[in-house]
Amino acid sequence: MGAEEGNLAAPHTIQAPARDTPTTFRTFFFFPLRVSQRTVEPLEYYRRFLKENCRPDGRELGEFRTTTVNIGSISTADGSALVKLGNTTVICGIKAEFAAPPTDAPDKGYVVPNVDLPPLCSSRFRSGPPGEEAQVASQFIADVIENSQIIQKEDLCISPGKLSWVLYCDIICLDYDGNILDACTFALLAALKNAQLPEVTINEETGLAEVNLKKKSYLNIRTHPVATSFAVFDDTLLIVDPTGEEEHLATGTLTVVMDEEGKLCCLHKPGGSGLTGAKLQDCMSRAVTRHKEVKKLMDEVIKSMKPK
Amino acid sequence: MTMSWARREHVGDGHTCKCKIISTFTSERTQMCALGLRWPERLAFRQAGPVPPSAHPLGQGPPGGPAAAPRLGCCSSGTAGGGAAPAAAIPTALARARGFKRAEAPAPGPRGRAEAARTPGAAMPGDHRRIRGPEESQPPQLYAADEDEAPAARDPTRLRPVYARAGLLSQAKGSAYLEAGGTKVLCAVSGPRQAEGSERGGGPAGAGGEAPAALRGRLLCDFRRAPFAGRRRRAPPGGGEERELALALQEALEPAVRLGRYPRAQLEVSALLLEDGGSALAAALTAAALALADAGVEMYDLVVGCGLSRTPEPAPTWLLDPTRLEEERAAAGLTVALMPVLNQVAGLLGSGEGGPPESWAEAVRLGLEGCQRLYPVLQQCLVRAARRRGAAAPS
Predict the structure, then answer these.
(1) Cα–Cα distance between A115 and B63 in angstroms, integer?
(2) Distance, in angstroms, between B245 CA and closest chain A CA?
(3) Where in the cell is the protein located (chain A) (predicted)?
(4) A214 and chain B: CB distance < 8 Å anywhere?
(5) Would you state the pLDDT for residue B202?
(6) DSSP state, B62?
(7) Which of A23, A78, B275, B348 could anchor a disulfide with B184, C-beta 3.0 to 4.6 Å?
(8) Residues B360, B334: contact at Cβ < 8 Å?
(9) Please, is A29 exposed, middle or buried when counting C-beta atoms within 10 Å of its C-beta (0-12, 13-18, 19+)?
(10) Dihedral of CA B14/A93/A211/B328: which sign?
């Protein structure tokens, strides 16, 4: 192979990020093709790392990427949060408006989530109405809100049967590198903790609502649901916090949403390879530890904001 | 008694709304002006008072609406902040009309219901791809008693400090984030990829080994506003304004990009406005040009955008780089896009009340000066991004 290198014009080289060991292939064309295994046989490439219980970016199988959160950056929104999980970046903005309560529940308000995956975040999305992935994510967030009772809808009612708050939670993904559900849940939680609603009173004589924009109060957040996502490789191996590439190669995914005191809020397993009961238990215990990590981060961030 | 909307006009960003109400009862025309993006008056004209159960039809619009509506009151008349002033502040004819409607409450059942049924919902009723919320919702600002403070007087040629950063998204080929005062915009570029419906072409080749005109590449621009970007939430399907701005982006960027070097290919530029603090289009233009440069797309020059607005009647002056408050109160607005090194205007978009042509020429000159002042910041940003990229990549 080496002897032919000198005889030909520039050999083809495909650039690959560091940490790769390029391997020369024997092809039936006679010039040497320096190709990275990562591009041609990504699954084999991953298996080599997984055998050693680690991943190409240096993480362990149960290790999360660096999580950063930034709250209150959007001043036009009533509450906002930006969450970065490695490269995956998600921003959530909360807008509160008035609406008439639903007829079947006149003492409740609304919480309306919406996850948007614009073409900006990844080349696989096209502009236009929400695709399948965005709809699934929106529904997942709606389920988390409903099941975990993160906000009691009764708290959002101002005057039963007449006026209530509707919280529009718009989550936009800015950079899609896997594990979107975890990032969205965290962003939603952080934004809700940061959200401030103005004080509303109903004037008895006129029956009009009077809003005092100067006096704002935080929402009453009852629980703190935290999502942990796993990817299943080869029907057996579970890795935490998959990147985009890992999600693509995985044979199944699983998301566990845990509450305080180890209460399970939501389990999302859209098909994929089966899991034994023991594996599921492992996932849940990992989710419990993840909840502690996230709660600590959130408390730090909120503490640094409060004195305002 | 019928109440109907004769005409509703939106000026500019939809912040100003003029309505004519023809009331057969009073037989006079009342003109009201209010700041508010959606005309909450519609609530006031629904049937008042508790609806007797037998009269309540199934499947009527917002269920709790009819009983609730008049209590919420209407929007104000002409106060800048658009608060819900108590009934006394409303022009008398209107108040009389509403009072009449209230007294008549149980009687005009069918008509009242018809009115209510006609009011459109704020959320898209047919959109089953998104989680459904209430049919209509109003922002609390409409019911707030106090007005916004008037914008402080300032030097008309001041530019807000700009923070620009390129190369921050991992999944896009090139990206840029620009923050100027309260305006935050993020832009990403992907491609070049095979253009859909690319035609075969002949024709004379352009200068410098470029493809003939029929084979030139295309630039597809997409402008999106985050729902929480403005004062009032905008439901996701943006509508005409976003398309107009996307077209403005495309028209301004095309002169700068060497599309002849990308035959039969298309470059996708998507801009996302995270927060609107004034001069949003100008910021989007600048961010888009930075993102294209970051993506390594061949360009003749960067494109720098600058926004201007003219203060209303007593002493109209053109202000460079207006804030959101200034834009809302402006009589006219203008956005210029300049290619600084070539010193050529790439795009110009203006709207508003007319004025003497000298005033507009003066505004354009001011805008071009502003663009030139902004250029060194963007140069530095690109140099830093290139250094970061060089340091990160393996040798």
Answers:
(1) 27
(2) 15
(3) Cytoplasm; Nucleus, Nucleolus
(4) yes
(5) 52
(6) S
(7) B275
(8) yes
(9) exposed
(10) negative
At A45, list the tokens.
């490439």
Q: Which residues of B246-266 are buried (b: 16+ CB within 10 A; e: fewer)?
A: bebbbbbbbbbbebbbbbbbb
In 3D, which of B274, B267, B275 has the Cα closest to residue B293? B267
Domain annotation covers residue A27: no
With contact defined as beta carbons under 8 Å apart, do B335 and B320 qualify?
no
| In-domain check, residue A42 | no
DSSP helix/strand/coil, B391: helix
Amino acid identity of residue A79, one-letter, is G
Q: Which residue from A113, A168, A198 is facing B233, i.e. has the nearest CB?
A: A168
Query: Is B234 within 8 Å of B226 (Cβ atoms)?
Result: no
Whole-number average pLDDT of chain B: 73
Question: Using CA atoms, how far apart are residues A233 and A251, in angstroms rounded to an integer?
Answer: 6
| Containing structural domain, residue A154 | 57-301
In eight-state DSSP terms, residue A75 is T
The CATH number assigned to the domain holding A234 equals 3.30.230.70
Shortest distance between the Cα of A43 and any Cα of chain B, in A, equals 21
Please tell me which of the candidates B133, B190, B275 has its beta carbon nearest to residue A112.
B133
SS3 of B172, please? coil
The tokens describing A81, both together, are 């949060």
Q: What is the pTM of this model?
A: 0.76
The ipTM is 0.84
C-alpha A93 chain-centroid distance = 14
Say how many CB pairs under 8 Å bridge A and B. Answer: 193
pLDDT for the residue A31? 53
According to DSSP, the β-strands at A110-116 and A163-175 are: parallel
Instruction: Report yes or no on A187 lying in a domain.
Output: yes
Among the listed residues B180, B278, B189, the one whose alpha carbon sits nearest the alpha carbon of residue B229 = B278
Where does the pLDDT of residue A32 fall: very low under 50, low under 70, confident under 90, or very high at 90 and above? low
Q: How many domains does chain A have?
A: 1
For residue B112, the number of C-alpha atoms closer than 13 Å in the C-beta half-sphere is: 28
pLDDT at position B111 is 41
Residues in chain A with CB shorter than 8 Å from the CB of B194 are none
Residue A266: inside a domain: yes
The one-letter amino acid code at B226 reads A
Q: Do A118 and B224 touch (CB under 8 A)?
A: yes
Judge: B63–A102 Cβ closer than 8 Å, yes or no: yes
